[in-house]
Amino acid sequence: MIEQLNQTLFLLINATPQSPEWLIKLAIFIAKDLISIVPLLIAILWLWGERKQMTAQRMMIIKTAMALLICVSLSWVIGHIFPHDRPFVSGFGYNFLHHAPDDSFPSDHGTVIFTFALAFLLWHRVWSGLVLFVLACAIAWSRVYLGVHWPLDMLGGLLVGLCSCLLAQITWNLFGKQIYARLHQAYRFCFAPFIRKGWVRD
Fold it and tell me: At 167, which helix (H) or strand (E)?
């Protein structure tokens, strides 16, 4: 029943040889390159911002990084416990993006970007979380459209993201102050020359 639903949804989304070439190229860009927003935003929010907001901003980034580490670990474990072939491995639909024939569920891209969006929604601002959630949905769509994932791979990524944010918040409540103090100390030591020049925040 679930597998049939998965296949039906896939066929509704998956591109075909008759699909517009520009849309396939756009989907490839979204599927491969849009995920770069994750490390980019983490670096920007850690290094720059209003001085009075830097502590809260960096605490949010640490919680987000913790959630990302947890989600990648959970995704790896789930993928090995519940292996599922990708559509092109099963000879299902059309494939327009080269990808290794590894486990499909849950989507690593989907897990990371949904976790990132949920982290901003929960710990940053609602509007930033919603913008990132739209980008996450675009990435999820593109990878199904191009034939490298099933729709339920993306739903799995969203659910793993929710669990990861919850576990990150629990960990933060227990050890957050110690984690922040040590990471901030390490940052000040490594970036001391740039901090003195005023290129990045203390």
Answer: helix 151-190
CA 32 centroid distance within chain: 12
d(CA 69, CA 19): 37
Indicate whether 175 pLDDT > 90.
Answer: yes
Burial label, 136 (beta-carbon count in 10 A; 0-12, 13-18, 19+):
buried
What's the pLDDT tens digit per position in 9-49? 999 999 999 999 999 999 999 999 999 999 999 999 999 98
**CB 58, CB 180: distance < 8 Å:** yes
C-alpha 76/C-alpha 200 separation (Å) is: 35
- Tokens matching residue 8: 């039906």
Closest CA to 103 of 91, 114, 115, 87: 87
Nearest-angstrom CA–CA distance, 82 and 106: 9
Q: What DSSP designation does 187 have?
A: H
Read off the pLDDT of residues 88-116 as tens digits, 9 standing for 90 and up.
888 888 999 988 888 889 999 999 999 99
